[in-house]
Structure formats: structure tokens, C-alpha cells
Design brief:
Length: 148
């Protein structure tokens, strides 16, 4: 499996490699297992991250939401959420590595992405969080921990 070239497609698999790269310093063993599950080399993970950063920093690059749509395709679901006085659009994409989770992007009026994170998929059971010992890596979302 060779590395990706600049003209290679950048899709959900590469996006998952970017997410894994972000987590590598905190959970190296879990990231290593997930990388193998994607049949990706360390070099591919680094290259995916490099290409994502280049897309993010491109002077005339796509806006954040357009970038997510071009990489992840059409969202699995969309909706609206009110937070304080702000009503925003919410878009959710599946993440094959974590079938019980979705990648959520919240978009403020005017189209600016102001939050992006992994959330529990609708209907998927969240873990019971009573003590610090229940905080098993990759078992719960930031939002679930905050609520607990």
C-alpha cells in the first residue's frame, strides 16, 4: 500500500485518519489498532493529516462546511438546534470506525462552522458514567462526560 499522492481522492477513510492523528498523542495504542483496522500505514496517516491541514489553510480554499461536504459527502442527517439565542444548522456524518458515533458539525447563521466533534448516534446506547473508572477511552463523547 503506497502513500497517497496529491491527486488521490480525499474521502471518509482519509478523514478518519485525520481524526486518528489528532488522537495519537493521547491514545497511541487505540490509534494504532484503529489505523490497522483501516489498513493504513503510519505514512498514510501523516499524509492524510498534511493534506487536510493544507485544505484548511488554503487561501482560496473551500469554507469549512463545503470542505466537510466535499470530503464526507452528503450528511446522513441534518437538523436545527437552538443554543441560547442562536439557532444553528446541525449536520451529522457516520464514522465507520465508530458505528455508534457521528461526526457533528454545527453551523451558525451565515454559514460559519463553530463546532465540530464526535457525538453519540441517535438510538445508540451511551455508557453509564458514575466514576472516573467508567471513563474508558473511546467509550464516551465529550458531551456525555460533561453531562455526567
Amino acid at each position: 500500500m503506497g502513500g497517497m499522492s496529491a491527486s488521490a481522492p480525499f474521502g471518509p477513510r482519509e478523514f478518519q485518519l485525520v481524526l486518528l492523528r489528532r488522537m495519537a498523542d493521547h491514545q497511541p495504542d487505540l490509534v494504532e489498532d484503529a489505523r490497522h483496522e483501516l489498513s493504513a500505514t503510519l505514512a498514510e496517516m501523516r499524509e492524510a493529516n498534511r493534506r487536510w491541514q493544507a485544505m484548511v489553510r488554503a487561501p482560496r480554499g473551500r469554507g469549512s462546511l463545503r470542505r466537510y461536504r466535499s470530503v464526507l459527502g452528503e450528511p446522513e442527517s441534518t437538523g436545527r438546534r437552538v443554543i441560547g439565542d442562536l439557532e444553528c444548522d446541525v449536520l451529522l456524518w457516520p464514522v465507520p470506525l465508530w458505528p455508534d458515533l457521528r461526526f457533528e458539525v454545527m453551523v451558525a447563521p451565515g454559514g460559519a462552522v463553530w463546532n465540530e466533534w464526535l457525538v453519540r448516534a441517535r438510538g445508540a446506547a451511551a455508557p453509564v458514567l458514575r466514576t472516573v473508572d467508567d471513563l474508558v477511552p473511546w467509550s464516551c463523547t465529550v458531551d456525555e462526560v460533561a453531562r455526567a
